[in-house]
Amino acid sequence: MNMTRNIEFKTSVAVDLSGLDVTAKKLQELVAREKPKGQHHMKYTPMDLRAARYRAAGLDPDNFPSLLENINVPPVLVSRMTKGGVGKTSCSVNLAAALGMMGFRVLLIDADPQASATNLAMGTTEGADVEHHIGYFLLKKDSSPDADLEDALIHVYEGGFFDLLPSDITLAEADASMVTAVNSHERAHRFFQRNREFLGNRYDVIIVDTAPGTTPIGLSFTYAGKAAGKIVSIVEPVGDCIRALESLHSNLHELKSVTDADISMEIVINKWHPSLKHVKDNMGVLYTKYGPNLNDTIIPQFSGFARQMDPTNKMSCPLVESDPTSVGARAMIDVAKSMIRSFGISHPGLVMNREEGA
Ligand SMILES: Nc1ncnc2c1ncn2[C@@H]1O[C@H](COP(=O)(O)OP(=O)(O)OP(=O)(O)O)[C@@H](O)[C@H]1O
Ligand SMILES: [Mg+2]
Fold this sequence. Notes:
By secondary structure, the chain is an alpha/beta fold. The chain has 16 helices and eight strands. The protein has two domains: 11-56, no CATH class; 68-343, Rossmann fold (3-Layer(aba) Sandwich), CATH 3.40.50.300.
């Protein structure tokens, strides 16, 4: 069943996704590929945008300075919120799709037994054939690399631009076993460290979708956020969500006081609606209390997100893929671009502008 998708998009979308601030003509020059005969309009691929980014930096995409001596875990984005239904999965999967379409090689880890990221990434409601989920790897005591990690992955996009470590309901049992596991909070960090060679060679970024609440697996990935120095918190501008944000904030403080992890939050506001009074009031609260931590882009309430998982639609998939010029998708693409800067997401041999102090 697990079908790998071949991703193509039109010129205007390619120009936007490239992040290069170039004209369509210049982009085609950088891509250096002719329109195939018989094709009416040029269709771009993730590989094209990757090649364009190398050429724009004056490098040959097939022959760039190697960093192989220094393979490290790529930037890890962990999306967290203790409250359910705020859009963690919608954001994780659409960010993964946006970055994959841009030509970054993405690994999405579904760390929620509900497996909604697995379903949304794969465009199914049926679940995936799960060989091993993340719980299996977190419970291992090994310190050597996981030889069975590669076989556990599902290729969502052609070309290695979007891979998935899928989940299913049995992840809940692993979560329960984590309660009694020694040093359970360090397990995700150790998983990344022992597999750094494989992960560093294969991916430019890793995105983790966690379950709501504070489960041992969620906490373990929060701790793993210490490598990036921050986690991504998705909030809805409603009262109980702001209270949940406060509890997550104090979680991070607690983690700092008992471990070596100093982790801040990058907050993404989702399901914003301009005309609701309580939304306006809560936006004020968010700006006052968390101003410096807020992402510039606010993701609006947008009906297209709900249609992503339409069981009657066989072609359901992330919004940025099905409708990349829609209001919701454009907001997701903006957030993805800001994450490139703030998490230092890049290609091997290419150092891109990383924000000061990020
Ligand atoms: N910006 C948005 N506009 C409209 N609907 C949205 C938006 N973001 C998410 N949704 C919808 O809200 C519901 C919950 O979203 P999602 O599953 O992403 O949240 P979650 O935080 O991952 O939930 P859970 O806590 O269960 O894991 C879904 O039906 C989704 O389509
Ligand atoms: Mg979810």
